[in-house]
From TrEMBL:
One matching Pfam family: Cas6b_C
Residues annotated as domain Cas6b N-terminal: 4-104
Signal peptide residues on this chain, from the entry's feature table: none
Domain Cas6b C-terminal: 109-220
Domain of life where this protein originates: Bacteria
Name assigned to this protein: DNA repair protein
Length: 224
């Protein structure tokens, strides 16, 4: 099983969820657009379809960044250039570290299951949204979402340079919340749900569309 580092940095800057894209823009302005890991864009018109190793979030109303695997090394570029003040949208705000958590995780498949809660998960692109709506049975819809989630786990594994050799076992156990949200001006279905899987995952990482900007964040695993 691969051992990866994850750093969660929380700043003393108040930040609303709706301001996360502007926060990301502020960080990119500091490090420069040549650092693709900070924004996942190869060019203005070309997107890098890879798992984001630097993710922007809010933690208890404060700006935060989660760095995963290669992102741990990349974040040093920001700290060497950060002056403690950034422009978020049209406002200049202080940006000083309030807390930093550094952990190593044995990520991989285990003989036991782990239970997670994933919040505001954008599971479906436009094509899959149509397929999902065409399904009539609840069990069919759940199985469809399970396949999407397994796909997200494989994307994460690829992002940390891990080839998953054995089957991923995953079951959605509860879907307490489903809503329509806007991401980049486009409407998506957002799910907050519980699932269990034989893959051990670090807490605070994001899965699915918009993972780099706070969507699809998972909580701390619970062994079953």
């Amino acid at each position: 099983m691969p051992i990866i580092k994850v750093i969660k940095i929380t700043f003393d800057t108040n930040l609303k969820s709706s301001e996360i894209p502007k926060f990301r823009g502020a960080v990119v302005e500091v490090v420069g657009r040549q650092n693709v890991a900070f924004h996942n864009h190869i060019s203005d018109s070309q997107f890098a379809y890879s798992y984001p190793v630097i993710q922007y979030k809010t933690t208890n109303g404060k700006a935060s960044i989660v760095c995963i695997h290669d992102g741990v090394d990349e974040i040093h570029e920001f700290f060497t250039k950060n002056t403690g003040r950034v422009r978020i949208g049209s406002q200049f705000r202080p940006l000083m570290v309030e807390s930093m958590k550094i952990n190593s995780f044995d990520v991989g498949l285990t003989s036991t299951s782990h239970r997670y809660q994933i919040n505001d998960w954008l599971a479906l692109n436009e094509i899959n949204h149509i397929k999902y709506q065409e399904l009539e049975g609840i069990s069919e819809k759940v199985q469809f979402l399970e396949r999407m989630l397994i796909g997200n786990l494989l994307s994460f594994a690829k992002g940390i340079n891990w080839t998953v050799g054995d089957p991923i076992i995953l079951k959605i156990t509860d879907i307490p919340s489903e809503s329509t949200v806007k991401h980049k001006g486009i409407k998506f279905q957002s799910f907050s749900l519980s699932f269990k899987t034989n893959m051990y995952l670090p807490p605070d990482i994001g899965l699915g569309k918009g993972a780099s900007m706070g969507w699809g964040t998972i909580n701390k695993p619970i062994n079953l």
